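Title: Comparing notes on inverse folding

I've been comparing how different people in this forum approach sequence design from structure. To keep things fair, I'm posting one structure and asking everyone to reply with a full sequence. Here's the target:
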């Protein structure tokens, strides 16, 4: 199962989006447009109704984010200002486009109702202009609406309706696109969460299989040694013989109970993993072979061991080995050809483990420090009461550090 990482927007686009998302953006742009309207009215003064309508149309945009229906006031005031004067103000052109976009973007009403309402307002303003023109030229029978070419008188309404349709449609398209993007991001987050949960469950099942092999071997050895002690140790009293037999019986019962309990967690291994499951569990003595396998596929690896080597329990050896194995896999997958350094530091009370490479830094493993392989490594470290961190290396590249106390 694979996931698609969305493409990151360019830095300029990110800055523009951050600017438009700022809380002060609608207030600043609305105020700037209102100041521009005042300047335009100072150069081209009109009637009091026209001036008031223009200022209302621009100033109401300051509330467009806090209260999107305020854009209806902006559109209505803009149409009123156009009806009060024969020319359309530049400030009203801008405020009308922005208001229609906001109405479609927030879907204050259904887009069809918005376009129909805007077209009706444009037609009403156009008809008022026609009637006023007929009155000014003293036509005795009103405007010649029935003559050939009379539809040209309504070009103004057709143009305004087309502009309103375009602005509303653009706002609605942006809204639909953002909803689709949010749904896709939510679905992708759910998919990643499911994959990580499945990866954790698979890792725990693998740990259960390995623990079954390790613990079963140890418990079976206790049973065998307890039973053989009754025959190989001379001079045992009957009480001692009964004690050894009880130890052997308890070990066999514990072994059966252990198999039954771990069978709940143990999942059937895939066919291609059956040989690996039945093979002896690896230890830190096998790290050399692991690094040789890494070099055989084109990688570069170096092993450094410091401190006095001490024998560790099988679970600690296996956990450390698996962490190194997964870190090498991570390096081959995300930094092919990078140089990998594996460091083991035997301290007084813990084993410090570090795997670094000089490849590209985070993010890795499909999600930075929360990917599936890193989840498995953390499970391994937590199994023995340890901890694991992963991220950018001190000198670049990627770093995995674990401490396994004993």
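Reply #1:
Here's my take.
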């Amino acid at each position: 199962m694979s996931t698609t990482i969305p493409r990151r927007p360019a830095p300029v686009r990110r800055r523009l989006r951050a600017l438009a998302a700022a809380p002060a953006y609608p207030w600043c742009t609305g105020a700037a447009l209102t100041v521009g309207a005042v300047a335009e009215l100072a150069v081209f003064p009109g009637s009091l109704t026209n001036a008031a309508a223009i200022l209302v149309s621009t100033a109401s945009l300051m509330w467009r984010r806090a209260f999107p229906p305020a854009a209806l006031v902006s559109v209505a005031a803009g149409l009123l200002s156009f009806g009060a004067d024969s020319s359309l103000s530049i400030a009203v052109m801008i405020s009308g486009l922005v208001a229609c976009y906001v109405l479609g973007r927030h879907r204050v009403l259904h887009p069809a109702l918005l376009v129909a309402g805007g077209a009706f307002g444009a037609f009403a303003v156009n008809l008022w202009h026609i009637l006023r023109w007929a009155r000014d030229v003293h036509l005795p029978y009103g405007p010649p609406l029935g003559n050939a070419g009379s539809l040209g008188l309504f070009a103004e309404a057709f143009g305004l309706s087309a502009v309103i349709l375009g602005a509303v449609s653009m706002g609605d398209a942006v809204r639909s696109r953002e909803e689709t993007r949010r749904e896709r991001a939510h679905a992708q987050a759910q998919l990643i969460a499911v994959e990580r949960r499945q990866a954790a469950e698979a890792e725990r099942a693998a740990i259960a299989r390995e623990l079954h092999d390790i613990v079963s071997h140890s418990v079976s050895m206790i049973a065998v040694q307890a039973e053989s002690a009754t025959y190989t140790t001379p001079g045992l009293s009957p009480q001692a013989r009964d004690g050894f037999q009880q130890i052997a019986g308890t070990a066999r019962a514990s072994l059966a109970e252990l198999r039954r309990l771990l069978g709940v967690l143990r999942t059937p291994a895939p066919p291609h993993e059956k040989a690996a499951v039945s093979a002896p569990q690896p230890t830190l003595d096998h790290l050399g072979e692991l690094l040789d396998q890494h070099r055989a596929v084109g990688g570069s690896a170096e092993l450094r061991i410091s401190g006095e080597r001490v024998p560790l329990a099988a679970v600690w050896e296996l956990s450390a080995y698996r962490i190194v194995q997964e870190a090498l896999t991570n390096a081959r997958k995300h930094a092919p050809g990078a140089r990998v350094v594996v460091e083991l530091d035997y301290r007084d009370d813990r084993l410090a483990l570090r795997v670094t490479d000089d490849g590209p830094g985070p993010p890795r493993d499909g999600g930075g420090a929360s990917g599936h392989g890193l989840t498995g490594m953390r499970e391994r470290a937590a199994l023995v009461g340890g901890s694991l961190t992963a991220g950018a290396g001190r000198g670049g590249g990627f770093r995995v550090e674990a401490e396994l106390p004993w």
